[in-house]
What we know:
Blueprint: H1 3-38, H2 42-47, E1 49-57, E2 61-63, H3 64-73, H4 75-83, E3 85-89, E4 93-97, E5 100-112, E6 117-132, E7 135-145, H5 150-160
Parallel strand pairs: 1-7
Antiparallel strand pairs: 1-2, 3-5, 4-5, 5-6, 6-7
Amino acid sequence: MDSTHSQDRLAALEQRVNLLEDQLDIHRLINSWGPAVDTGDGDAAAALFAEDGLLESDLSYLIGPASIRAMVHGDGHQSLIRDGSAHIPAFPIVRVDGDDASATGYTRVYRYTGEGYEVWRVSANYWEFRRTPDGWRVTRRINHVIDGGPDAKKILGRSLDQRP
């Protein structure tokens, strides 16, 4: 095997490893949302987002980390935490394109009722990310409850555009 071929194979392997590391970092970022919001750690939740990051849902429209921090510390969310909540993401479909990325998937939120857990909310999620000097950050998250309407279906349809 000549050295050019070996260098090409090594470069291709390095590129594949970098892609896998990016995907893992993005999965870690998505999976950090639940523990942050379920423990009421507004700073940790806010740190997932870029300064211009947007969180859009049928429940809220938040721009920037300060708004996300305020939502976590707000009465509505604190009430959910007091009841006992668990934000559980499904394994999303992630697409990385250089320093930008996107992911599509589901989230379930469980709430403790005193006798057990009930599913409080099932949502479709679309995430956009940007690589920053501090690592990947969320630039946009769209979250809509799955209620048979078109919004959640539109979000989930994006995953069909993210096939490898």
